[in-house]
Design brief:
The chain is mainly alpha-helical. The protein has helices at residues 3-29, 34-56, 58-62, 72-99, 108-119, 123-151, 153-169, 174-191, 195-214, 217-235.
């Protein structure tokens, strides 16, 4: 694996853990509260990491595209086809978690992100744009891409998607995040362009943020109950 890829992974790890060191410093030096300090440092660290990663990935950007890479029209088509695929596996994995594994629906990670975005709307930029770019470069372009050269699609996608799920929500909803990770890996292999899973990831995150911010928590709870009832009818429960 090229040395710059290791630097990208290291940058991503530093970004994730830097809040534990620098948010308290920001809290001590500014009028911001502790929660606000954590949020604003996270915004800064994500954006700084994005610029650093894009700088490190310059050789990849300058390199010629794979001769079988998707055209512009195919990129648009697969980006939106991937969106429907991601929602389908999300629904299927959620049903399995709820009705077979007995896991309570709802992600603490998603709820936390929504709470942060309601508190500081600027964080929406991180969720909708910055995070998808960073995650697709790290988990699909680098981790999946390098493993795919050595062990084929399934195991490369399984390993990279497992890490993707752990980073997002631990083991509780690993099936949901891993399933979505498989879709993103498939899009990357199918189109030979990392921008395709990036676009799908961005759109999926943006829809989630917009829908949840436009609804009251009570409305969301009612929608979840209706969805569970529909699932029970579909599976014959």
């Amino acid at each position: 694996m090229p040395k710059r890829y290791w630097y990208v992974i290291l940058t991503y790890i530093i970004m994730q853990f830097s809040v534990f060191i620098f948010a308290p410093i920001l809290y001590a030096l500014t009028p911001l509260g502790l929660v606000e300090s954590n949020i604003y440092w996270s915004i800064f660290s994500f954006i700084a990491a994005l610029f650093a990663v894009l700088w490190l990935m310059r050789p990849d950007m300058k390199a010629g595209q794979h001769r079988d890479a998707a055209s512009a029209g195919e990129m648009v088509l697969w980006s939106f086809a991937g969106l429907f695929m991601a929602y389908f596996v999300n629904y299927a994995a959620s049903s399995i978690e709820t009705y077979i594994l007995g896991i309570t629906p709802g992600s603490e990670n998603t709820q936390m992100i929504m709470d942060i975005t309601r508190s500081v709307p600027l964080f929406m930029v991180i969720t909708a744009i910055v995070a998808p770019i960073l995650e697709e470069i790290v988990f699909r372009k680098i981790i999946f891409g390098e493993l795919y050269k050595r062990m084929g699609f399934f195991w490369a996608a399984a390993f990279s998607s497992f890490i993707f799920g752990i980073i997002h929500d631990g083991l509780e909803h690993i099936l949901i995040y891993a399933s979505i990770g498989f879709v993103f890996a498939f899009l990357y292999v199918k189109t030979k362009r990392i921008i395709v899973p990036v676009i799908t990831h961005m759109v999926m995150n943006s829809i989630s943020v917009i829908v949840q911010l436009s609804l009251d928590p009570e409305d969301i709870e009612n929608m979840m109950k209706q969805l569970e009832e529909m699932q029970m009818i579909i599976i014959g429960g």
